[in-house]
Amino acid sequence: MDTVSGVPLWSAYRTTTSAVASTDTGAYLVADDGSSWLAVCIDEDRQRTRAQDFVVSYGLGATRPRVDRSEPAGWVGSEMIWCSTRTEKDTILAWIDAHPVWIWRWPADRAGTYADGGLTRASLADRASTARIHQAGRPDRDLLIAWVEQ
Predict the structure, then answer these.
(1) DSSP assignment, residue 133?
(2) pLDDT (tens place) for every residue of the chain, 150 residues total
(3) Angle at 122 between CA 51 and CA 96, to 5 degrees
(4) CB atoms inside a 10 Å sphere around CB 145
(5) CA dist., res. 47 & res. 37, Å (int)
(6) What kind and span of H or E run contains 30?
(7) Is 140 exposed, middle or buried (0-12, 13-18, 19+ CB in 10 A)?
(8) The model scores a pTM over 0.85
(9) Of 24, 37, 83, 113, which shows the fewest CB atoms inside 10 Å?
(10) 142 three-class SS
């Protein structure tokens, strides 16, 4: 985007000399077309697995198994998002409902200095679920979002 006479105007694509990286420690849900975003607090980044199928079989009289596998097809994972209020939880769920495909903007990784956390284009892979963090009358909740890379 360029600003002309105080008005932001989208420009044509151009090549930069270096990759654009972010050291932002926040996590975001970003619309697939970049038109909107929502900051989220990832409480737990759960295990990610590659989407890939395997079939192991033993033929009659075989001394070793036969392994057939598909090509890797991206990643599957889930994120536990901390919501401080019910309104925040409802806002995140409404945003995901309105955006069937979105981009995870991951927080920067820290290894001495901050390094860009990257992006993952994703959609829901299972039903979202919510749970109380404390078994008491408090408004904060954990919201589990299972996703699959697109």
Answers:
(1) S
(2) 667 777 777 665 555 555 556 778 899 999 999 999 999 999 999 999 999 999 999 999 999 999 999 999 999 999 999 999 999 999 999 999 999 999 999 998 887 888 888 999 999 999 999 888 777 777 888 999 999 999
(3) 135
(4) 24
(5) 24
(6) strand 27-31
(7) middle
(8) no
(9) 113
(10) strand
Annotate 55-86 with b (16+ C-beta within 10 A) or e (fewer): eeeeeeeeeeeeeeeeeeeeebbbbbbbbeee
Tokens of 117: 């956390």
Distance of alpha carbon 30 from the chain centroid: 9
- The alpha helices in the chain, defined as continuous H runs, are 86-98
Residue 83 C-alpha from the chain's centroid: 16
Please give the backbone phi and psi of residue 49, each rounded to the nearest 5 degrees, phi first.
-125, 150
**Amino acid at the residue 24:** D
Place of tokens 């097809």: 73
